[in-house]
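Run log, item B.
One chain of 310 residues. Sequence copied directly from the ordering sheet:
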Amino acid sequence: METTDTLQRFIFENAAVRGEFVEISDTWRQVQARKAYPAAVRTLLGEMTAAAALLSANLKFNGMLVMQMHGDGPVRLLVVECDSDLQLRATAKLADDAVIDDEAGLTELVNANGHGRFVITLDPKDKLPGQQPYQGIVPLDGDTVAVVIENYMLRSEQLDTKLWLAADASVSRGLLLQKLPHEGGSGAQGNDDAQAWNHTVMLASTLRKQEMLTTDISTLMHRLFWEETIRVFEPRHPGFHCSCTREKVGNMLKMLGKEEVDSALDELGKLAIDCDFCGQHYDFDKVDCAQLFATEHTSDAIQPAGNVRH
């Protein structure tokens, strides 16, 4: 059955719980088209892609959510970016000598020595004067992508959140449930909210990964919650988008500094830079780099280049 990239938000009418299902197929295949990842790495990156879309659907600003796992094992970095329009890109970096078993899990791949870190960055597009991106950094607390994010949300956002994630070569799917904040009321109401939360989590916990991988989200929603009264919102559609540009690469070179760039040019003749997310290729020769450092604004030094290719 053909699938379409879809994020479906819903809310339980008789419980203080909201939820989201996401199904990412075409976008996920575009991510994988750039690099051939080992199966275990592909699974982790696919699960993070689904999770990033689920969390980004609740962004209250126009901007970007960046989710990163920094590792001390054979996988050094997993990163997914998703903006408020659900435009996604993702990549992974492996150690040069990485040997990865197909059945390896998160701890073995990313947190082998207990020094792994999980980072979420919220970066508004239209910043106020002096405003900086918000960044939360915590240890990798959990043995799955879902548990790491659940622990982060409880610690950083004080939100009870449960995630079910699955990914293979064809599709990345996820389910998020979140307990809505209790606003006043009696202790009995609070107990009712807790019971409703536990009930919905119990229903969702019957979901298995293989079932997620082989079943579309509308069928999954019916199977899990057919006895519940649910209000469904207009679906949204994630897509692949890479924001790399020649100007941004030029800015990166300027941040390295003229001395380091000149040293690399003396050794290599020109700088060849590939985007880790989309594979776009950029060449900067000595003339290009001289123009970069001779102008205040990088855009003034960037000319339309015929040597930029995919």
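Observations after the first pass:
- The CA atoms of residues 127 and 302 lie 25 Å apart.
- Residues 304-310 have pLDDT under 50 and may be disordered.
Flagged for discussion on Thursday.
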